[in-house]
# Entry
Amino acid sequence: MHAAPPDIVYDLVIIGGGINGCGIARDASGRGLKVLLCEMDDLAQATSSASTKLFHGGLRYLEYYEFRLVREALKEREVLLRAMPHIAWPLRFVLPHHSGLRPKWLLRLGLFIYDHMGGRKILPPTRTLDLRTDVVGRPLQDRFTTAFEYSDCWVEDSRLVVLNARDAADKGAVILTRTACQTAERRNGQWHVTMLDETTQTNFIVKGRCLVNAGGPWVEDIFRNKLRQNSSDRTRLVRGSHIVTRKLFDHDRPYFFQQSDGRIIFAIPYETDFTLIGTTDLDHHGDPGSPVCTDSEKEYLCKAASEYFKNPVTTADVVWSYSGVRPLYDDGASSATAATRDYVLKVEVEAGVPLLNVFGGKITTYRKLAEAALSKLRPWFPDMGQAWTAGAPLPGGNFPVDGVRELIARLGEKYPFLDEQWAKRLIRAYGTLAFDVLGNAKSATNLGRSFGWNLTEREVEWLRSREFAQSAADVLWRRSKIGLRLSPEQTSAMELWFAQIL
# Structure
């Protein structure tokens, strides 16, 4: 997707291919607006693929009185579940009572509010567990005897971004990856945006009636240095790091662990054979494009988990780590943990030409953020359609929220050469589109070469032609997490494949 677009004037030119940019592109395209989105790297390259991968209300945000944010996020969980049952599903979180931290009455109160604030219909309510008899107590130290089990949801974060971009493109949006905004200026009642195709190193100009700066951690850099706009608004860059360890427990319920420093961490079953532990909250300085989980952060997360598990977690157990930078709106909070997670949308107008800067936001509220963004822009586009995304499935998500098992069974019946693990992975990635990915294949050999695990050439070609993938890393770490399972030699073979195709 690197051909310079035709010389037309777009309604929205969006900078940034993370969840906010792609969510706005999808919503706007579905309302009849002409949209172009540029992303300097891959979709979900930065913050949007480095989350804890949860659709959640944010239980701990209640302590910071973020009631509007929590209410909106709680309501969104079930809206999103219905729209994407292939990449999102309910989880039951286990919150052990720690006698030295928050008292039971406070936990019960918080969870009561959590249960009743968001109009919950699909997800079951909180219940109390006896850790001495429930299976979830076995991996924990004997001193933990009581826990509370409550509902939130998992989401494949980077696939969420890609599917929003795919749906936007299906509705007419132009999605340009590896395309960087160089400069932008208002001229003759329009934005003139100079872009650089990073693959061919060629420049071209795009014209738009409105510019949307959804640059994530780069949002402030974009409006100050690329757009040369003066503003008192500031971002606070907060780094969140995670570790992935060997599998630490055998059941399917994640843990919510309180810490003596006031923070919390999650320990979540991950990719069948692993456990995901995170996150940290630290102010980030330096390049937001290359954050790393530091040795001290790894040690912090291991120590935090070891506070609860019988078997200590050590850095030797870590098989992978990742880190992302959240671009929070700088509200002057005393610590990174206390800084608001709410989104802030600011419209700047000069000579009648609008610029929308997008600050902050949670992955759970991305759809509401997109609706709010278009509401702010309606004065310039009074004829655009109404809000529509609440009931609309993402590509592959057009099946019942409880229909995953049936869909896996149907896929296995049509393609008997799939084993259960393979069929489940394909349905969880593509939903009903898994049948299109496999097409008329009668055997595994019809799917082309195998790159390792159960990843075939047919699937990689689908990701290249339909999901904007242009490198091995795009496939192995953002369209999937199969990178956890492949050898360096297998990864190199895929890189060579892309080099020959592109």
The two ends are 11 Å apart (CA to CA).
